[in-house]
Write a structure and sequence with these properties.
heterodimer, A: mainly alpha, ATP12-like, ATP12-like fold, 10 helices, 4 strands, 47% helix, B: 107 residues, mainly alpha, 4 helices, elongated
Amino acid sequence: LWWARSPPAWLPRPPPAAARNCPVGPCGRRAYAPPAERKRFYQNVSISQGEGGFEINLDHRKLKTPQAKLFTVPSEALAIAVATEWDSQRDTIKFYTMHLTTLCNTALDNPTQRNKMQLIRAAVKFLDTDTVCYRVEEPPALAELQKNEWDPVVTWAEKRYNVTIGSSTSILGPNIPASTKETFVSHLASYNMWALQGIEFVITQLKSLILSMSLIDRHITVEKAVLLSRLEEEYQIRRWGNVEWAHDYDLCELRARTAAGTLFVHLCSESSTVKHKLLQD
Amino acid sequence: MAALGAPLRTLRELLRELRRAAGRSYRDSPAYRHVLAAFRAHRVTSEKLCRAQQELHFQAATYLCLLRSVREHEALHREYHGRGERSPQEVAGLVGFRLPQQPGGKG
């Protein structure tokens, strides 16, 4: 009987029932009230370098992951971006806007406890139901739009990775040859564990391996990738109208998550070197 | 390569987003300084198609997209989804009723 137990100690205690005129549940608080948000409890956010990498300091406290591990990231630019996320929180901390922090926590804790091969297999499995390979036959305007927008991306992927993908209008989806999947598996194996978490995240958001790879290879921008992923929705919006609180809300959230995932992958897999050219006399 | 436009425009919009996110002391924030330093470091090259420059521009455009979408998403959430549950008084007021006052609390 979960509602009979008192709420966890870290939630702020609600005022006693006599002070409010609300129906009071057995555990002493309103039914269905969302948990109180954490207030911003720190003044300054700064970065420091430890042995494992870069750490985030909230005032003098070191940031930890949900599983209480020390929060260390390998890249300074990523640490700066995470610090900016924490610094941009005003009165309350809104965890649902802190996508980079969430990605770092996932990479550090690995809550689903998958190893590298399992992550790669999960990512390549999306190819069987890839969005850009699933075509409709009617309405003809949408079929035409899909052909014009998605065919170039599929062609680019086929040329870049030297594979056969194709597209299909049947309900079973495209028939992807095993050699294609093996090519992608070996390509993804060249990324490190952190970057792979990011790649798998982007694929899950865009529902397409091909769009994610063209985004990671910098062939298209984030806005374009999100547009291509939501092509049918955009078509219906243009036909029937836009509903701001649903369509724009989902669009902004998808853009934010995809941008965070892409940035995460690039920052975790780059190695920047500055080469100074000698002046030629 | 992605169609990105002018790097200067991306930089200017990115700095604007950082200023909106940071508040008062945006110029001292590590993100602001890091972005400016990175753009300055990659500015002068004698090669027309500098790969590092394009990589940096793509990263900057991605970060700009992230900051902008998070800000817009939060604004939409505040406007449409942030209100929470109505109190029983408000619910009664929706149909024109008032809650009864019972001395000594509810039985």
